[in-house]
Amino acid sequence: MGFGDEVKDQLSFLGGFKLTFQHLTRPRVTTSYPDEKKAKFPRQHGRHVLNRYEDGMEKCIGCELCAGVCPADCIYVRGLDNPPDHPVSPGERYGYVYEINYLRCIHCDMCVEACPTEAITESKLFEFSFSNRSDAIYTKKELLVDDNGMPQKLPWEDWREGDDMMTSGWMRATSPSGSAAYEGEVQWSGELGYGTRAPEGGQSGHRNDELTGNKALRETLEPHLLPEDIPLAHRGMQGRVWRAKIGAEKNKKKMEAMRVRMKELRTSRKAAKAEGKS
Ligand code: SF4
Ligand code: SF4
Fold it and tell me: Mean pLDDT score of the chain, rounded to an integer?
């Protein structure tokens, strides 16, 4: 064995670092959960909400279709005739009792599909837990949206920005009978707090990514796509430069936020000192 071969043999362990070095320039996919959370899918199925019309009337008419279709048998609904002097819903009846057992729910959204009035939809929240069985049963008190149409944020739920957006985004993606003619057309009624939401696009390219939040999702998922599904401009060295630019932009925003926070802290400390002296 010559000297060259010996050196090569001695340094052969460096081959083991090949994968490590390759990943040094790739974007990090892990985050400091739960402090930092990744963008959720626009059609994520989370904790349900019971919607209301813009005049405050409840959308649920107590028809029990959601309970009938639920494969996990976790919805319990009882309808009651609307009191003529102060109706709760615009229909003949309203959902007098509405309960969902989250120990059973598999978030399949069949109830959302079955509902004729868009009363039951799902938010993106999945970070909630319970210390006993009865707390896992959400009643109308917890499920009904507030006066502004926003889901109630209960103390044991970890709501983050955007979790309450597009609570019925999943349904909005579908077009009646799968007809492409309706793609991109608003098919759903306006919602309290949100108004009429932009429909999601399908395969036709007729879409508004900014309004539906799809662009952010595609960017988030790109590192996990097959190479042939990644746009040419984002592959190879070009892609690395593109990702580095995005990373630099994110770091800039983080630094800016940190600077603002430090400034606030300094100001509050100065104010506290001044108060102590006086
Ligand atoms: S999401 Fe599925 S399992 Fe959960 S309540 Fe609705 S139908 Fe039942
Ligand atoms: S949520 Fe919808 S499907 Fe369920 S009882 Fe109310 S109106 Fe009927």
Answer: 82
Domain of residue 276 covers 232-278
Residue 102's CATH number: 3.30.70.3270
CB of 70 closer than 6 A to ligand 2? Answer: no
Share of the chain above pLDDT 70, in %: 79
pLDDT score, position 144: 95
Residue nearest to atom 4 of ligand 2 (CA): 66
Q: Identify whether 2 is part of a domain.
A: no
Q: Which atom of ligand 2 is nearest to the CA of 67?
A: 4
**Is any atom of ligand 1 closer than 6 Å to the C-beta of 70?**
yes
Query: Which of 84, 87, 35, 37 has the alpha carbon at shortest distance from 60?
Result: 87
Strands across the sheet containing 93-101: 75-81, 93-101, 137-138
What global pTM score does this model have?
0.69
Q: Quick: pLDDT tens for 163-214.
A: 776 665 555 555 555 566 776 677 666 777 777 777 666 555 566 677 766 6
Phi-psi label, residue 104: left if phi above 0, alpha if psi -120 to 50, beta otherwise: alpha
Q: Which of 207, 127, 211, 217 is nearest to 166 (CA)?
A: 211
Domain boundary among 129, 153, 170: 170
Asked whether 143 lines ligand 2 (CB < 6 A), one says no
The answer, yes or no, to whether any atom of ligand 2 lies below 6 A from the CB of 64, is: yes
Residue identifier of the C-alpha nearest atom 6 of ligand 1: 111
Domain total in the chain: 2
**Nearest protein Cα to ligand 2, atom 7:** 60
